[in-house]
Amino acid sequence: MGQSTDPIRDPRVYLENTSLYREFQAERDEILRHKWIESEKNGRDVGFEAALTDWIAKHRSGWRRGRQCTLSGGRR
Questions:
Q1: Which regions in the chain score pLDDT beneath 50?
Q2: How far apart are CA 10 and CA 1, in angstroms?
Q3: DSSP string covering the chain, please?
Q4: CA-CA distance, 20 to 62, in Å (whole number)?
Q5: Into how many domains does the chain fold?
Q6: Beta carbons of 59 and 27 less than 8 angstroms apart
Q7: What is the extent of the structural domain holding 17?
Q8: Does residue 32 belong to any structural domain of this protein?
Q9: Are 55 and 31 in contact (CB under 8 A)?
Q10: Structure confidence at residue 66 (pLDDT)
Q11: pLDDT at position 12, please?
């Protein structure tokens, strides 16, 4: 049989379709992108925790503002 797509039988289906989970995934993707960029600049892997801390300090608030604007269709 195929994979279950019923949220009652597979709670991951429900979780993956929530806006909170999608926002978490989008933010995680941005942090990983930042980690890659910073690692390339430094010529070494800077590590997730350092990239996370740096991204939060330098980029998170702007990213969130831009994301909210994009998700609301440009309305503020």
A1: 1
A2: 14
A3: ------TTT-HHHHHHTSHHHHHHHHHHHHHHHHHHHHHHHHTS---HHHHHHHHHHHTHHHHHHHHHHHHTTT--
A4: 18
A5: 1
A6: no
A7: 11-71
A8: yes
A9: yes
A10: 92
A11: 75
